Amino acid sequence: MNQPITEQHKRTARYAKALSHPVRIYILEYLSKQACCYSGDLSEILPIAKSTLSQHLKELKVAGLIKGETTPPKIKYCINMENLQEARLLLRHIFE
Questions:
Q1: Residue 28 and residue 63: Cα distance in Å, rounded?
Q2: Is residue 48 part of a domain?
Q3: What is the CATH number of the domain that holds 23?
Q4: pLDDT tens for residues 32-60?
């Protein structure tokens, strides 16, 4: 079964990479329970350095699972529901 790597494979891998850390899973769960939140709110909840939190948020944003809206000096993050749904479908496809 030698199939070339497709765009679907690449998107699935991008989502899987973003989901590969427990802090990122927590962030997605946290955001799914509310409309949006500020990175400062997350830094009060999570026992990690702000720079580390920033890196996790960046990974989720690069993967397209969250959106960030900058209103200096704060950044508001929300789940990108369209991409989260796509990630759910692509990952489900692997396990079927």
A1: 12
A2: yes
A3: 1.10.10.10
A4: 999 899 988 999 999 999 999 999 999 99
Residue 78 lies in a domain: yes
Domain that holds residue 58: 7-95
In a domain, 91, yes or no: yes
Q: Report the candidate in 65, 62, 69, 59 with the shortest Cα–Cα distance to residue 84.
A: 65
Q: Three-state secondary structure along 13-54?
A: HHHHHHCCCHHHHHHHHHHHCCCCEEHHHHHHHCCCCHHHHH
pTM of the entire predicted model: 0.89
Q: Is residue 1 part of a domain?
A: no
Extract long-range pairs of 92-95: CB within 8 Å, 24+ residues apart.
93/12, 94/12
d(CA 92, CA 76) in angstroms, rounded, equals 29
- CA atoms in the 13 A half-sphere facing the CB of 70: 3
